[in-house]
Design goal:
mainly beta, about 15% helix
Length: about 140
Amino acid sequence: MPVAVLRDSGIVESGSKAQIFAAVKIDGKTIYSAFTATSQASHGQGFSLTTHFPWREIPIRPMRIQLTASHETGAPIHALASQLAGTFHHVTGEVEFTPEVGRDYVVKGALGESSSVWIEDSESGERVSAVITES
């Protein structure tokens, strides 16, 4: 069966905080994402955050992908402090996407006062999905 690859990505801000851009559902079904992988890798490490950005093969057909861009922290209290300080941002939404055979795609985004998330072609850097934005 022909497939493409879809990767999660992110930016490590510090040893205890990162920005994560991930596909979290395909056609309404929850999938393994950087949020789950990072949470598992960081379990029991106190405030330390160990990021993991998984990839998955996806079939070549039209699909709806739920994308999420969010800050992730090593401990819930750190997330709360960031929220109170206005430095914890989040956006989520669904895009329609039809991958091409053999292509490599990555979830990208930007977090700030206006946050957004999208899918782009890994080779060209071209956006290949709608951009989900929240301000």
